[in-house]
């Protein structure tokens, strides 16, 4: 076993030596093979190669947790009180493994670690999602520890107290929007993971059988009774959105806050806002390459309604293949390699947008790569690269677009996803107009089923908030026009009566 620094800036190697020696000396007959203490020899007994792999994997994870524990501080995670649980995410055998480390007991928390492993196997969560889940689970575990409780003895009272405490914490956060409804949605997401953790632990036999259930249990929930949970955790996400089912599974959630989506639906950018954001991008860009790259983020999101990860997954080769489809048609088909939930949908992309992306490659990306001497294959690399020639992170796209949107006068939370809402709203309006012209059904359910295909959504109910808001806005607009028309007719009627009365008076004279 070799222990080296990740980089020259890494610290704590001496502490790492002591912790690893403490963990391995008794169990694996650890011996030093050099003076620096960076090379060790271990004796690991095993009965089969599979068992040996398991022992080595456990050893590596334990050592990683001891040497490199760190707290996740994602963009949505505010600083909290002194942690009792620290986290570390490692990549092993193609999986993202979250290691939960109990700082007081200096032990790996196997229940939490195994639960996130099961989530990855069942749902194939990406790094960002698994990070957010781990942060939520950590908050719940620390809350129980502060109350002197454990998962096997927690009750509905603990869940209610956790919910109320987290709501206060979110509202007091520096990043809070100071809107109670939004804060309640954040807390609901954390509470759902707490319920799911408890259900998984009981299903695995790690806590008593009366811990969670619909009747006679310390925590009331129908999660283990539902059809979706019989074969694991993977189908909870696709379960019915019925409010009755939701209340039975998660009885202590805040009610009626529209938490099916974490994105607010009350703002989408206008064309004026989009043009202003593009103008700010060109004004603040340090080079033509940066200006045209960042503008493409806005235009792709606006024209296609794609999420940031899908935009960032575009490749030069994919654009070249799409160019071969160009014909008299106005659209070509393109499938981004990264889509939510692992979907592999294809989308109709306007020909002008494909040609524009190809123009960006030929006129800006390749010259920049040659000038900067980037060691990349410009025929197969990602379409969007940073100033160092490496693929951009998804969060970089969010930061770039958010800055431009804020400078254009949009709300602080407006970003790439705002254009997805704009795309959805435009599609809903077009679909509604088409159905009215053709005399077809214009119910929200029918429009949702049609528009969801263009958004790449498998569940039409997921865009129901967009459709309902759009239809309400259209009805309000029609009502306002009708009222304006009635008011104009009334004013005209009053004017005519006054004129008639005046003429009658003149005739009598």
Low-confidence stretches: 6-10, 65-82, 227-241
Helical amount = 40-55%
Order of SSEs: HEEHEEEHHHHEEHHHHHEEHHHHH
The 3D shape can be described as globular
Structure summarized in a few sentences:
The protein is mostly helical. It has helices spanning 13-28, 49-67, 110-123, 127-146, 156-172, 180-203, 243-249, 271-284, 288-304, 308-312, 316-323, 351-372, 394-407, 416-438, 444-455, 464-508, and strands at residues 31-32, 40-41, 85-92, 95-102, 107-108, 212-213, 219-220, 331-334, 347-350.
General description of the model:
This protein is mainly alpha-helical. The chain folds into 3 domains: 1-68; 83-249, no CATH class; 271-425, Orthogonal Bundle (hpI Integrase, Chain A). It contains 16 helices and 9 strands. The chain has helices spanning 13-28, 49-67, 110-123, 127-146, 156-172, 180-203, 243-249, 271-284, 288-304, 308-312, 316-323, 351-372, 394-407, 416-438, 444-455, 464-508, and strands at residues 31-32, 40-41, 85-92, 95-102, 107-108, 212-213, 219-220, 331-334, 347-350. Helix 14 crosses helix 16 (464-508). The protein is globular, with a radius of gyration of 29 Å.
């Amino acid at each position: 076993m070799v222990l080296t620094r990740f980089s020259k800036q890494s610290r704590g190697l001496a502490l790492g030596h002591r912790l690893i020696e403490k963990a391995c000396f008794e169990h694996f007959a650890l011996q030093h093979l050099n003076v620096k203490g960076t090379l060790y020899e271990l004796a690991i007994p095993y009965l089969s190669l599979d068992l040996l792999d398991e022992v080595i994997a456990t050893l590596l994870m334990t050592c990683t947790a001891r040497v490199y524990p760190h707290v996740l501080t994602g963009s949505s995670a505010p600083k909290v009180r002194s942690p009792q649980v620290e986290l570390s995410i490692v990549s092993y055998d193609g999986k993202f493994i979250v290691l939960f480390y109990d700082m007081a007991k200096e032990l790996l928390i196997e229940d939490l670690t195994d639960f996130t492993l099961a989530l990855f196997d069942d749902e194939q969560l990406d790094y960002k999602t698994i990070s957010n889940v781990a942060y939520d689970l950590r908050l719940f575990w620390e809350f129980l520890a502060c109350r002197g409780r454990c998962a096997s003895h927690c009750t509905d009272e603990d869940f209610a107290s956790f919910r109320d405490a987290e709501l206060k914490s979110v509202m007091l956060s520096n990043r809070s929007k100071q809107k109670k409804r939004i804060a309640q949605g954040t807390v609901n997401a954390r509470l759902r993971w707490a319920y799911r953790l408890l259900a998984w632990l009981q299903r695995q036999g790690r806590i008593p059988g009366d811990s969670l259930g619909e009747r006679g249990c310390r925590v009331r929930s129908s999660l283990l009774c539902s059809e979706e949970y019989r074969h694991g955790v993977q189908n909870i996400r696709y379960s019915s959105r019925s409010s009755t089912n939701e209340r039975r599974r998660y009885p202590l959630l805040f009610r009626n806050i529209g938490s099916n989506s974490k994105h607010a639906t009350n703002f989408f950018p206008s064309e004026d806002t989009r043009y202003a954001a593009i103008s700010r991008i060109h004004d603040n860009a340090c080079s033509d390459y940066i200006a045209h790259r960042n503008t493409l983020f806005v235009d792709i999101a606006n024209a296609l309604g794609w999420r940031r990860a899908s935009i960032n997954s575009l490749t030069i080769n994919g654009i070249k293949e799409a160019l071969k489809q160009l014909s008299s048609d106005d659209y070509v088909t393109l499938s981004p390699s990264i889509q939510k939930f692992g979907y592999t949908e294809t989308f109709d992309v306007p020909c002008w947008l494909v040609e524009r992306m190809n123009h960006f490659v030929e006129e800006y990306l390749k010259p920049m790569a040659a000038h900067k001497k980037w060691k990349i294959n410009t025929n197969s690399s990602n379409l969007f690269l940073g100033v160092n020639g490496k693929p951009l992170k998804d969060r970089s796209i969010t930061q770039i677009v958010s800055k431009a949107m804020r400078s254009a006068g949009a709300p602080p939370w407006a970003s790439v996803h705002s254009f997805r809402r704009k795309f959805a709203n435009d599609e809903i309006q077009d679909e509604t107009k088409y159905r009215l012209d053709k005399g077809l059904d214009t119910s929200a359910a029918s429009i949702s089923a049609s528009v969801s295909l263009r958004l790449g959504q498998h569940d039409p109910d997921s865009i129901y908030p967009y459709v309902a808001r759009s239809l309400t806005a259209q009805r309000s607009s029609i009502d306002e026009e009708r009222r304006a028309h009635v008011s104009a007719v009334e004013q005209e009627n009053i004017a005519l009566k006054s004129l008639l009365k005046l003429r009658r008076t003149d005739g009598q004279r």
